[in-house]
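Example record for the data management plan.
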Amino acid sequence: MSGDVEGLPLPDVVDQLEKLADIRSAEGWDNVGLLVEPYTQTRVKSMLLTNDLTENVLEEAVNGKFNMIVSYHPPVFAPMKRFTAGTWKERIVACCLENKIAVFSPHTSWDAASGGVTDWLADAFEGHFDPNAVLPIIKAKANLESESDQATNGHAPPSSSATPAFPTTVGMGRILPIGTTTQPLTLAKCVELVKRRTGLMHVRIATARGRSGLSPVTSIALVPGSGGSLLKSLLESSSTGTSPIDLFLTGEMFHHDILDAVHRGVSVILTNHSDSERGFLKVAAGRLRLALGERVRIVISSTDKDPLRTV
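Corresponding structural encoding:
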């Protein structure tokens, strides 16, 4: 199945993955980059993209004869002392090595990147904010921002048609000032736009005290995945003591952090953790196909899904 393409040496593929998003921009606590490297790996002919590397996804990779998996979330995070059949994560690493499957994880480097996961999520509100006014909640290191400007001449990296070009914004989270010249953006409309962007039938919403679905939204902050800590830092950084935003979008948050937000005038929309990220895989696949050409077959996993569903 993978013999129809030429393939590329693993180091060349890793180099292209690191060009898609600088792994130095990842959070210090994260575990990104090449995580599993088979000893006898030669050429990568087929690549499977997934949000989470579960045993179902691994079975798909083995059956499809993929020899590389790009897993947005790192399957190896906490230190592992052995690789046996004792736990599912140990089994995944052992099986990848046995089947000569390399594993690469970009995680928060994709979050921080200009035109990355966070900007993909922000595009839910396209047309309601000025891309040139977008700010990160936490800025990237100064040298990374400077290098990004030089490398892209002030513009986002080439993107697929699934995502518009963003100005160079590097860092964690985004703050979107909603334009005053557009048609008023209500909280109810924001819910509709998030569903459309993520393809979800349902999201969870906590409405700020004194607000309703008809209340106008003037500033939005968002973080893919689990964003409670970034919302805390944003609220604590306000010099006026009032919230600089009135809507926060993320995948999941702690209960008490949501209570604090709504009492401070911030409505919260939650999508489930990976549902705020998974849609970017289509964008990543498009960019990798441009970078690698027809030499590597690139497929998005059909078995990858969020473990939670609404019933």
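Summary line stored alongside the record: The mean pLDDT is 89.
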